[in-house]
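ARCHIVE CARD
Drawer: 12
Card no.: 0347
Subject: one protein chain, sequence and derived structure
Cross-reference: see card 0346
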Amino acid sequence: MPDRASSIEALYGDHHGWLKGWLRRRVGNASDAADLAHDTFVRVLGRQPAALREPRAYLATIANGLVVSHWRRQALEQAWLDVLASQPELLAPSPEERSLILETLEEIARLIEGLPAKIREIFLLSQIDGLTYPQIAEAMGVTVNVVQKAMTRAMAHCYKAVYRDAS
């Protein structure tokens, strides 16, 4: 497909520098910006876009999603490092275990990212903080029935995501 290849080559040539600068202003360093620009064009290759009327808007939309994922990963890593720092050295996991735990945390974050904010908050209060439905209802100023419905929706979302990915 020479037309597709040449259009992606032109897109890259015309906008790569701009995209790296745009990303550098958002993430604060050139190295992460270069990585994210690369990842953006990898996504473009996977999507096979038709002729773009607004290529910078298209690239910025893809890149912005990658920036959000980048920040989420940094926040997860920092939270994990904080937990590790509070543990006695004998209980600290190996580097391999740390990597697996971080990957699992990222998967969980991606999984619940698709939930509406209120449902995600209810789900996290239940599953992470261990609050009961009445405690969640009181904390959020909603009824227990609302909490039950939100948890049903969250569990269905998780179930679908896990089994959709498994097939």
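Annotation on reverse: The CA atoms of residues 10 and 16 lie 10 Å apart. The chain is about 80% helix and 0% strand.
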